Amino acid sequence: MRRQWLMALALSALASAGLAQKTLVFGHEGEPVNLESGNITDGVSIYAQRQIYDTLVDFKPGSSDPVPALATSWFASPDGKSWTFRLRQGVKFHDGTDFDANAVLFNVNRWWDPKDPTRIQGGANYEIWGELFGGYKGTSGSFLKNVRVVDKYTIRFDFGAPIPYFPVAIGSGYFGIASPAAIKAQGAKYGTPAGGAVGTGPFRFKEWRVGDRLILEKNPNFWKQGLPKADALVMRFIKDPAARLAELKAGSIDLTIQIPPANLGAIEADRNLDPVLRPSFNVGYLALNPAYKPLSDVRVRQAIAMAINKKAIVQAFWSKLGETNGHFTPTAFKTYWSPEVTDYEYNPTKAKQLLAQAGYPNGFDLEFWYMPVSRPYFPTPKEIAEAMGADLSAIGIRVKFQTKDWATYLNDRKVAPGFQAYMLGWTGDYGDPSNFFDPHFASPITDLFDSAGKPLDVKELNALLARGSSSSNQAERIRIYQQADKMVFDLALRIPIVHSQPLNAKRKNVTGWVLSPLGSESLEDVDKSGL
Amino acid sequence: MWAYVARRLLGLIPVLFGISLLVFGFLRAIPGDPAVVMLGERGTPEQIEALREKLGLNRPLPEQYVIFVGQLLRGDLGRSSFSLLEVRDLLAAKWPATFELAVSAMVVAIIIGVPLGILAAVRKNSIWDNLATSFALVGVSLPVFWLGLMLVYLFAVNLQWLPSGGRLSVEADAFFRPITGFYVLDSLIQRKAVIDVLSHLVLPALTLGTIPLAILTRITRSAMLEVLSQDYVRTARAKGQAERVVIWRHALKNALLPVVTIIGLQFGTLLGGAILTETIFSWPGIGSWIYEGIINRDYPVVQGGVVFVAFVFVLINLLVDLSYALLDPRIQYR
């Protein structure tokens, strides 16, 4: 009773029912929390939403370069304070209603306006809008001052200051445009297994079996001619990476994401599988908190940066799936890298000398916190921490490893005076360097503290970042972020250890899967042969 | 007997209250805040505070407990802090998967474990006995995670005889519709995908059933050994009864009481979910769901899930107690 026999039986039943179709089975790393766009930030939900919704702006496959999507073009006002988007005509939502400027306005108001009556009250707070755009309607920090429909296919956003990165930020996977009619009809059920989700994207919602799978079918009216290539997309929720890999090997799924780097060899050795790498768009770093005496001295922090053999660590834990170069931003932002930054040379002798100059010739005790969970930027945090600890002990720093449960870890690092040294990382939301620099170095820095126990404020850097995020002159922005890159490197408050390329895998008969550095991509181009 | 059942059911009320208090208290005692987990690496203090307020976490603990119990009394288990879905609906979706897997695992354990235990007892100190006791020892010692993955690699990846995970193949999606959520039942009702559904159960049931199987083998063996040394068994043999009759009619029936107790306890435990087996086989049951709820500090999910599991566990125990009267007429419930 071979499994193929079972499959053949099932397929013959399908064929006899006239239902034979090309179904793509995607091994998802979890179950979406919700399919309501703009109200969820976890990668699992966003990946699923990306198949149902389109955004105003999309990105060239495999890059973070913006390309037209639901908006065909966009331009800023001369003062940079307004952005106008011309919208695609003739696009319909999956429920048959028209996509137009009013639909965009409806969605934006829902994200931006806390008093919008169509918001789901309870649970998450549409926090991503506030985080990316300074706050909500009616709050002093909100970048957005007004949004209005110019005509049926034109919408304009007015800001208090220039927001040069707005088109790429609004193009991030968080902000899929949903059908206003569906949201009004479903109310609180919208985005749940019972209510589904309605967008304009390549696949439309069919069924969500709780804990098991999300079944999507081809959108026959998709505005991109000839796409999607698959007739149906089934996202199976398989949380365990070993189970995902086993299912891929067994052929019960066609493609999957987030496989631990250690499996690269096994995937390459399997004649049915191909590894697929996502371009790096993250950073895994070691934060050094100046609230504590030895770490308040920049020489000590730089000594630590010199003492850690980052190249060897990256080679050992990521092999060809990671790189280390001293820059806080990944290669996608190479334009913004300072030519003056070359990573601290691994040099324990020099590091020891620096420690001695700082008054610690015999080293010191250091509490070193490592994450209790695996993340793409640190897939095996404990082992990586131990490798760094071994390097630090070579220059006399006596490392005491600590960890806490994830929720507590995230929380306690922000409770003054915070952790001494800790591992954490970041995966970018959109293709602008401000998305890496601002959350980590703009004042106040909430997870690093000064000697008085107050959130750290690096005034010069903060002023630079403020200029960078409001300048609409690209040449000037490049100069600003190159300066920021150098300043961040010299301060050594967060030592970038790795920019990793998350490992994914597919069956050999699957083609057209180009992974986006931004963490999720539409599977509209993915095809599968050998039905 | 009905008065006894009613008394036991009434006794459930303080038990469930006690459990609700324990789970509520333990959850709050674990450090870590649901709002922090929900917002992850990017949450600002203001966002965290706003979310805490929205989730009602800034209210005094006694008030939170009263709200929880009030909801419980109305049959409302609240909403998941993460997905905003009704915990009741989530339980309804996940419970059938857990029940089906637990039943299958117990079927594996009973149909292999009990005969093996009998064989070991009847052929005491023989090669069969040694094999059965060694098997039982290995069975309880095997790490479930390892066993599950080995079974997957052998039967799903290499031999491709059985599916590697899930409850239903994607191919069967086109003609199978879940009705009750109990897929075996649903497939039988529709007369579709029966083999597909059953084949998905085999490996998880074998994995999950291994430990109860080993325990049942050992318990059956020792219970049978004790009964076989009783005078009435010797009498039966002396009367010239066939050995088959002595073992199956006289000995086994009396040896079954401890076996049934263990079956009940094991079944109750399996119904509480099997985190590792569910994880390996992507089985959408309540074990991994509650576990994830704990990791995410999703209080309503953990509270609702644990109270429900406790309720089921107590109910199973009641059924086991009632079954004693069927097995041993001397036992009466008043």
From TrEMBL, chain A:
Matching Pfam families: SBP_bac_5
Classification via InterPro entries: Peptide/Ni-bd, SBP_5, SBP_5_dom
GO terms of biological process kind: peptide transport
Record's signal peptide: 1-20
Molecular functions per Gene Ontology: peptide transmembrane transporter activity
Highest taxon above the source species: Bacteria
GO CC annotation terms, alphabetical: ATP-binding cassette (ABC) transporter complex; periplasmic space
Domain Solute-binding protein family, residue spans: 66-443
The UniProt record lists the keyword Signal: yes
Keywords: Signal, Transport
Gene3D superfamilies from the UniProt entry: Dipeptide-binding Protein, Domain 1 (3.90.76.10), Dipeptide-binding Protein, Domain 3 (3.10.105.10), Periplasmic binding protein-like II (3.40.190.10)
Keyword Signal: yes
Family per record: Belongs to the bacterial solute-binding protein 5 family.
Protein name as catalogued: Periplasmic dipeptide transport protein
The species this protein was found in: Calidithermus roseus
Lineage of origin: Bacteria, Thermotogati, Deinococcota, Deinococci, Thermales
UniProtKB/TrEMBL annotation, chain B:
Predominant subcellular localization, coarse grouping: membrane
Topology versus the membrane: Multi-pass membrane protein
Superkingdom of origin organism: Bacteria
SUPFAM superfamilies in alphabetical order: MetI-like
Keyword Transmembrane attached: yes
Domain ABC transmembrane type-1: 95-324
Stated name of the protein: Dipeptide transport system permease protein DppB
Organism: Calidithermus roseus
Gene assigned in the entry: dppB_4
